[in-house]
Design a protein that fits this description.
This protein has 699 residues and is an alpha+beta fold. The protein is built from 25 helices and 18 strands. It is 50% helix and 13% strand. The protein has a five-stranded antiparallel sheet, with helices on one face. A four-stranded antiparallel sheet has the order 13-15-16-14, sandwiched between helices. Strands 4-6-5 form a three-stranded antiparallel sheet, covered by helices on one side. Strand 15 and strand 16 form a beta hairpin. It starts with a strand and ends in a 10-residue tail after the last helix.
């Protein structure tokens, strides 16, 4: 079956847009194929700096014939109804319709049917319409017009390959204005400098092979693999290793069509600058890869990936990049040397000129609040409160340094370097560096007590402040990264096993604010607990924990110790996953439903104590005894936070509960017996709900 090959050849597409654009091209074309009834065997999209390409294999020569039927009004219907039907069906008279008796199928009479048969079209015709439509709908994040044209594209377009079964499709894309049309063809160009001449292609295999001969590696994954392998090989020849950087690798793969890795040297005069600054400068401005020595520290070497091969083996390219790097690093070294002339503590006052948020004050005010909160948290978790206070004071001071002004990515990290250089307590220096952490699910989580205290305080202050002024995340919008802050707090607490009460921390953070216009502390704490419940579900879902179990525990109210909550949730998951637990959950729901229905019917509750004297059958006596024993056993176990033991005690209820439902009629004729049995069912609910709200558990 024929193959479709499309290529849009243009000026350089920004690296960050290429992979998404290839996916969009594949999605848009395949969606339009499906809308036209065209099936295919496979679809594969590619991107390089100067081209987007798509190959679709296994397309039919023609679209299928289509027979469409549209049911109309009953024969004898008003003329207005008939006229409306004919118009909607594109017909002019009833003679063009069929009449069908639908009485046998419940249709109650004879109805008109409009039947149209559409012959299939040549696939080439459909494709010639699809390609311009896709181009018109293309969702570039940013696009441009050029020349006198009116159509927008990411960069000026030069040519379009559109081949179906080896033949050029008859079509074009109108650029608007005097730019005219780009007519579909079968030619493209290779590497801008190494192989600039145009050449024609016959199919995808020919296209890919000729591109390679013209110094273009079409496959993005292949380019990435080559860049990484060549860089690692160059590092090995120097006795070094490549510093992992997947983000940079992805970006560089979008900058080159013919990657050539080269190794350069960093002047020794710059090696006393912190490696984070050197690496940030190299990757941000120059797209260089850093190399590491055997000890894992940065070596005075870098790898640059050129987009061309040269007769001198890249010597001139390396020399030019070394020259540019010297200028870049000269600035970094100057900033580093200048920054060390002023102590961090002397910079704190300058934070008063930086607004944290218009309603929440300055960064200097935030630092003051975080100091108070960090000390309180430190005392609660057994950390050094004085060190936490000191770290909080200095935590934001590097924001007003020259290095961080130039390289915002190293904030916190530079604070640690400056603090250590000034002789600060190493725990204080580490806390300065780590107080922003964890920044995401793949980021490391602080474990040092002082670092944990300051990191918690900083995030709590932010969350409480924004919730108090009603700047909460909505939908997909979270401009202040509050979801990330909440997830960071959850990780800090759970991964360090901290026994802290979130509600108390929320209120302490609220009390540290002195600005006006705040919501009440209790309301903020309640909203934040609900917010944390949602975030905790996200965290635990990744660990295989069911969201409804988190709901069931949170529904008890008053549980704001995340470590204890997690232990309860995991014990509950094990319990409901067992045969006894699953059966007991079913019995709970049955009992709850009966009680709920009868309470609604009677207009009163049945949550009073059971009267043992009214228990007449052995099964209800056994259940009452089992419930009493389970409650007595569970209470001390719950107090000791032995949730597994508590669940085991509850599991012993399965037999008596099953026997009760098998042998006992709840709605007895005697009113007092009926009421007592409903109270017994209510006690099942109350006993299980001491552990979690079982009504929230699905299943």
């Amino acid at each position: 079956m024929p193959e479709l090959l499309i290529e849009f050849f243009s000026e350089e597409i920004p690296a960050r847009m290429q992979a998404r654009a290839a996916d969009d091209l594949k999605r848009l074309v395949t969606e339009k194929l499906a809308a036209n009834g065209l099936t295919f065997a496979s679809a594969e999209a590619h991107s390089t700096p100067r081209r987007l390409a798509l190959v679709i294999d296994g397309l039919p020569e023609r679209t299928a014939d289509v027979r469409e039927e549209k049911k109309g009004p009953r024969v004898g219907s008003p003329e207005q109804a008939v006229a409306g039907f004919l118009k909607s069906a594109g017909l002019t008279s009833l003679d063009q319709c069929e009449q069908r008796d639908l009485s046998s199928s419940g249709g109650k009479g004879v109805f008109y049917f409009a039947v149209t048969e559409k012959k299939g079209r040549a696939t080439a015709e459909v494709l010639a319409e699809i390609i311009p439509a896709v181009m018109a709908d293309f969702p570039w994040p940013k696009s441009m017009r050029w020349g006198t044209g009116t159509v927008r594209w990411v960069r000026p377009l030069h040519s379009i390959i559109a081949l179906f079964g080896g033949a050029v499709l008859e079509g074009s894309f109108d650029l608007g204005g005097a730019q005219g049309k780009l007519v579909f063809g079968n030619s493209t160009r290779g590497h801008r400098f190494l192989s600039p001449d145009a050449f024609t292609v016959e199919n995808f295999a020919d296209y890919k092979a000729k591109l390679r001969a013209a110094h273009v590696v079409l496959d993005r994954a292949e380019r990435k693999a080559k860049i990484k392998a060549d860089a690692e090989a160059l590092a090995a020849t120097e006795g070094l290793t490549l510093s992992p950087d997947d983000g940079l690798l992805e970006e560089v793969a979008g900058l080159v069509e013919w990657p050539v890795a080269l190794v350069g040297t960093i002047d020794e005069q710059f090696m006393d600058v912190p490696s984070e600054v050197l690496i940030t400068s190299m990757r941000t401005h120059q797209k260089y890869f850093a190399l590491l020595d055997k000890a894992g520290t940065m070596a005075p070497r870098f790898v640059v990936v050129a987009n061309t091969a040269t007769a001198d083996g890249g010597k001139a390219i390396v020399a030019g990049n070394e020259r540019v790097l010297r200028a870049r690093l000269s600035d970094a070294k100057f900033f580093w040397d200048q920054d060390r002339k002023t102590k961090l503590e002397d910079r704190v006052s300058k934070l008063g000129a930086i607004t944290f948020h218009a309603k929440l004050g300055t960064v200097a005010e935030k630092v003051t609040r975080v100091q108070v909160l960090a000390a309180e948290i430190a005392r609660a978790i057994g950390a050094d409160a004085d060190a936490a206070t000191r770290a909080a004071l200095l935590s934001k001071a590097d924001l007003v340094t020259e290095v961080v002004g130039e390289f915002p990515e190293v904030q916190g990290i530079m604070g640690r370097y400056y603090a250590l250089g000034e002789g600060e307590n190493p725990a204080v220096a580490e806390a300065i560096a780590e107080h922003y952490k964890p920044l995401g699910p793949s980021d490391s989580c602080p474990t040092a007590p002082v670092s944990v205290a300051v990191a918690l305080a900083d995030k709590l202050d932010t969350l409480v402040g924004f919730f108090a002024i009603d700047e909460k995340p909505t939908g997909s919008k979270d401009p202040y990264a509050l979801r990330r802050a909440a997830l960071g707090i959850i990780r800090l607490i759970l991964e360090n096993g901290l026994r802290v009460k979130l509600t108390q921390l929320f209120k302490a953070a609220h009390g540290a604010y002195t600005v006006g216009g705040f919501a009440a502390a209790d309301g903020v704490a309640t909203d934040l607990m609900a917010f944390f419940a949602d975030r905790l579900k996200v965290t635990l879902r990744d660990q295989g924990v069911r969201h409804d179990l988190v709901d069931a525990v949170f529904a008890l109210g008053g549980e704001d110790d995340l470590v204890r909550l997690l232990a309860r949730v995991k014990a509950l998951q094990t319990f409901v996953g067992s045969e006894e637990g699953a059966n007991l959950l079913a019995a709970y729901k049955r009992a709850s439903n009966i009680v709920r229905i009868e309470e609604k019917k009677d207009g009163k509750a049945y949550d009073q104590p059971v009267d043992p004297a009214l228990l007449t059958l052995a099964e209800e006596k056994d259940l009452y005894g089992a419930l009493s024993a389970a409650g007595e056993t569970a209470r001390p176990l719950l107090a000791k936070e032995d949730f597994t033991g508590t669940m085991a005690a509850l599991a012993r209820l399965r037999g008596p509960v099953d026997a009760f439902f098998d042998k006992v009629t709840v709605n007895a004729e005697q009113a007092d017996l009926r009421a007592n049995r409903l109270r017994l069912l209510s006690q099942i609910r109350a006993t299980l709900n001491a552990v979690a709200d079982f009504s929230r558990i699905e299943g």
